[in-house]
Specification:
Largest sheet: 7 strands, mixed
Bound molecules: S-adenosylmethionine
Low-confidence stretches: none
CATH architecture: 3-Layer(aba) Sandwich
Number of strands: 9
Strand order of the largest sheet: 3-2-1-4-5-9-8
Shape: globular
Number of domains: 1
CATH class: Alpha Beta
CATH superfamily: Vaccinia Virus protein VP39
Order of helices and strands: HHEHEHEEHEHEEHEHHE
Helix content: 25-40%
Structural class: alpha/beta
CATH topology: Rossmann fold
Oligomer: single chain
Radius of gyration: 17 Å
């Protein structure tokens, strides 16, 4: 039984932080799939105030800054990830260690134009807290763009006991070199993704089932083919009323 006060993925990401920071941009799933899809979905950010929730080593944080965001605040549960993000963006963003499963009291209300979150909210069982906080910190009419595991891909990857509901699962990551790391995560059905979003008062503007970019075909034909026929991630684009 996991301790409900300890974020499920903290230990794993502390162990993975440096390797993830060094390698993820060259991985089929991240650099050639989720990163470009997320950036396309976000669109122009010039002049916007953006929160990067679960920023990891700061790939998206740096991108948002380079694209001319007026302000980028970022947080992550893992101090080691925040250290990597600091190496990547220096003092250009505000970087804080914080848990998405708890109120984000350090953030002002009605301040941000956009909350962007890449592959992080999956690690929180109860989405009502982060979604309510995203809504609070957004200006009226603001957007959340967040990527999550596609339930179909997650079902294949984790083999949860049922396709319905939310299930704590784990997988052993071997693709980042070094010692394999067991990463706990939550499998979540489509209903468990959509219902908390609507309950938090967001409307769904768009949903993208991501596919790899064409460049991957020459680099890793097998992963390219797999990614073209079976979704691993999806991006939810939400509007705050
Ligand atoms: C797959 S990584 C994605 C990192 C980054 N967004 C990216 O795309 O490179 C998942 C991240 O979520 C963070 N995370 C997990 N649980 C969290 C929580 N409860 N609050 C904040 N961040 C969390 C992890 O520490 C890790 O950095």
């Amino acid at each position: 039984m996991s301790d409900p006060d300890v974020p499920v993925a903290l230990e794993a990401y502390e162990a993975l932080a440096r390797r993830y920071s060094e390698i993820a941009e060259t991985k089929a799933e991240n650099g050639y799939n989720e990163h470009p899809a997320m950036r396309a979905q976000i669109g122009p950010v010039e002049g916007l105030r953006v929160l990067d929730a679960g920023c990891g080593p700061g790939f998206l944080t740096r991108y948002l800054l380079d694209q001319g965001a007026a302000e980028v605040a970022a947080f992550d549960i893992s101090p080691a990830m925040i250290e990597m993000a600091r190496e990547r963006v220096g003092e250009r963003a505000s970087l804080v260690v914080a848990d998405m499963a708890r109120p984000l009291e350090f953030l002002p209300s009605a301040h941000f134009d956009l909350v962007a979150s890449s592959l992080a909210i999956d690690y929180v069982r109860d989405w009502s807290v982060p979604l309510a906080e995203f809504r609070r910190v957004l200006k009226p009419g603001g957007r959340v763009v967040m990527s999550v595991q596609h339930p179909m891909g997650a079902y294949k990857w984790y083999s949860p006991p049922s396709a319905f509901g939310v299930h704590l699962c784990e997988a052993t990551w071997k693709g980042f070199g070094g010692k394999p790391v067991v990463v706990p995560d939550y499998y979540r059905s489509f209903g468990e993704i959509v219902r908390p979003i609507l309950a938090a008062g967001f409307s769904l503007r768009d949903l993208t089932e991501t596919q790899p970019v064409a460049e991957l075909e020459a680099i890793n034909p097998r992963k390219y083919h797999d990614g073209m026929v079976s979704p691993t991630f999806m991006i939810l684009d939400l509007a705050a009323g």
